[in-house]
Amino acid sequence: MGLTTVTNQSAYQGQINVLIVGSLAGGTGCGSFLQVAFAVRDLAPNQTKLHVRGLFLMPDVYVRGAGLARDQAANVTTNGMAALREVNALLQATAHDKDRLEVLNFEYMPGRKVKFGQIPFDTVTLIDYEMTNGQSLGPSLDRYKDLLTRAAY
Questions:
Q1: What is the pLDDT of residues 77-88, one digit of tens each?
Q2: What is the pTM of this model?
Q3: How far apart are CA 9 and CA 92, in angstroms?
């Protein structure tokens, strides 16, 4: 039973809020956050009230906050930088450069490519280890998970 059945409407007309949560330190979340955001938009093409938000922990939270092994620090930092560069390249292409978008050839689902003017997120919040004033929550991954949870609401 869908929302349209419960509300006796032909289509759901309310606000749809989607929150994609993960980290940009590597792994599945870092490797698929853009694809997931575009796929969500693809699954609700006629929803004018669709709001897609991203909420992500930055690699430094794991390096400095979780005491990640030194030999892994370079990998997660590189993963985070690659993810941010991918977002930047894609946003620049979708907003300003159709030729570059064609070169990027970004396929987020089989047979589905990003189009000019298409955006993955309405807003993105990045949580890093250290604030602009130099303070942090300390070396505890749980504190950052708690902050992530509070930021979601």
A1: 999 999 999 999
A2: 0.85
A3: 38
